[in-house]
Design brief:
Elements lengths: L43 H8 L5 H4 L6 E2 L3 H5 L3 E8 L9 E9 L10 E6 L10 H8 L2 H6 E6 L27 H22 L8 H14 L5 E6 L1 H12 L4 E7 L9 H22 L3 H4 L5 H17 L2 E3 L2 E3 L4 H8 L6 H15 L8 H11 L1 H4 L1 H15 L6 H11 L7 H4 L25 E6 L7 H10 L3 E6 L6 H4 L3 H13 L7 E2 L10
């Protein structure tokens, strides 16, 4: 699950690039949708869906009218936007519809140089995707930029795509469950209440916000663009979406890049729980970095002392919330801040500086939050103003349409206590009650069993705290035709967000030539990333 390390709940923004010069093209008879299905979707539901495919022609043949994006910053980058209509329920194509917003940056080359489209997803679920074309284009070589229209999309229920709004005024699942029973009960109640708010407002509609339906939306966009095939770049959750699409529509896939992949078998609660040990490890890494710099940050002269300082800060927040600007961080909300600060090893200085600031605030000093800390506080405490409450509802809608979770609060309490000895900071955070346990609309179809021989390039960081390296190995095993490029750093979403010339070359070479490396390999760490 991505969650943007810089300032918001959303992991990263992503975009879908739309094909140049094909606006309004209709799909021919040969381009009618074909869905392979998956080994886990051979049920009557899947058969019923297949029987309705012909009823989707009007969606695949719709005209896309391109114009300026709602966000002037996107327009400034040369990005265009358009609306796409898709059915809420693909098994009922004549029923209610959704309006999705997609974005495009055209290929810079001639028709002869142009290869096609590359669709994208920034992660999440819940990551806004309209800005992803500009982010991806910035890392493309001129020859690759000449070859692809880059496509971005806000997925169904998110951002500018018929957004969901359950009226959530906090991020219940992103709170630590604390040290005592009263704190746990408070977090568990909030999680269940968030689910009930969404259930009350949207009811059975929530069953249709699944990854499988988002993959169908991706294919409608491909068809509406008049393209027989699409390439794909996904990071974090976007790797899962790309793998699901590849399994459902294997004959429509051109080139497939999976950056910071999750294990498709663990998608959901297990994946979130796997982040706990990874974030404790990131804290240990910070401690090793900060100890020799005690003269600057005053966090402790040994790694053990630095860790003790951070653990002590969380305990102090339980006794007396920390006043930062107009916000109060307690032991339930503080792990949220530490979770985001530990994403990138090149941010160790900012991580240490923020811990020092919070220590000063806990001691009663008046402090001003940094821009990044202010963004994180806004994401947690001002969800209506920042939009994170709506993004959170969208993320839950996808997760709960895809997976189920225990609806017994006691199950989570036991999981927390089991994790706490080895995960004193993040165990209560990454095992907190999941709203899906109280979700009314259960998944309408079985999840896709990701299992494919299709060629794919996978980029994975060894210290990833979101989709851990072990999680990535699970995707590598499921996508048997993939080649794995390992990057020995702590980061999430390598290509767009981290300086590594070797990984950049691997992605650009593959997109340009379509040739995968002959074998898996490990990149060296860039010297420019060592000045952390």
């Amino acid at each position: 699950m991505n969650t943007a390390p810089r300032a918001t709940l959303s992991a990263f923004a992503a975009t879908l690039a739309l094909a140049a010069g094909v606006t309004g093209c209709a799909t021919s008879t040969d381009d009618s949708p074909t869905e392979a299905g998956s080994q886990a979707n051979t049920s009557a539901d899947n058969a019923a869906y297949t029987a309705t495919l012909k009823g989707l022609d009007r969606y695949y043949q719709q005209r896309l009218d391109w114009g300026p994006c709602k966000d002037p910053e996107l327009t400034r980058t040369g990005t265009q936007c358009a609306k796409v209509t898709v059915p809420l329920d693909y098994a009922a194509p004549k029923g209610p519809t959704l309006s999705l917003t997609v974005s495009r940056m055209k290929a810079t080359g001639s028709d002869r140089e142009r290869r096609g489209i590359i669709q994208t997803n920034p992660g999440g679920p819940g990551g806004h995707g309209l800005g992803m074309p500009a982010q991806l284009r910035a890392k493309m070589t001129p020859r690759v930029a000449a070859a692809y229209d880059v496509i971005g999309m806000d997925t169904r229920g998110l951002g500018e795509s018929s957004p969901l709004d359950c009226g959530l005024d906090s991020i219940s699942w992103f709170r630590g469950a604390g040290f005592d029973r009263a704190s746990f009960d408070r977090v568990a109640k909030k999680s269940a209440d968030d689910a009930r708010k969404c259930n009350k407002k949207y009811g059975d509609r929530l069953a249709h916000y699944s990854t499988r339906n988002i993959a169908r939306d991706v294919d409608v966009i491909r068809g509406a663009l008049g393209e027989r095939k699409t390439s794909w770049f996904g990071q974090s959750y976007g790797t899962y979406l790309g793998a699901v699409y590849a399994n459902m529509f294997p004959d429509r896939v051109d080139r497939l890049v999976l950056d910071s992949a999750m294990n498709p078998r663990d998608y959901g609660l297990k994946m979130f729980q796997a982040m706990g040990p990874a974030n404790e490890k990131a804290l240990d890494d910070l401690a090793r970095w900060a100890a020799p710099r005690d003269g600057e940050y005053h966090l402790g002269k040994t790694p053990a002392a630095v860790r003790a300082t951070v653990e002590g800060l969380v305990r102090r927040a339980a006794q007396r919330p920390i006043q930062v600007g107009g916000d109060r961080l307690d032991h339930e909300s503080l792990p949220f801040v530490l979770y985001f600060l530990g994403t990138d090893d090149i941010d160790n200085a900012e991580y240490a500086k923020t811990v020092r600031l919070l220590l000063d605030a806990a001691a009663g000093r008046t402090v001003e939050p940094s821009e990044r800390l202010a963004g994180l506080l806004g994401a947690m405490f001002r969800t209506d103003e920042t939009g994170t409450g709506r993004d959170y509802a969208s993320a839950l809608a996808v997760l709960c349409a895809d997976t189920t979770a225990p609806g017994n609060a006691e199950w989570y309490r036991k999981a927390i206590e089991k994790a706490r000895p080895k995960q004193p900071v993040f165990g209560p955070f990454h095992n907190a009650p999941m709203p899906c346990g109280w979700w009314k609309a259960k998944p309408s179809e079985a999840p896709t069993k990701v299992s494919s021989d299709l060629p794919a390039l996978q980029i994975q960081a060894t210290g990833d705290t979101r989709t851990t390296y072990e999680q990535g190995l699970g995707m590598h095993k499921a996508m048997r035709g993939s080649k794995l490029v390992t990057v020995p750093v702590r980061t999430h979403a390598v290509f767009v967000g981290y300086p590594n010339a070797c990984a950049d070359k691997a992605v650009n070479d593959y997109l340009l030539t379509g040739e995968l490396p002959s074998e898996d390999y490990t990149c060296p760490r860039d010297q420019q990333a060592d000045g952390r």
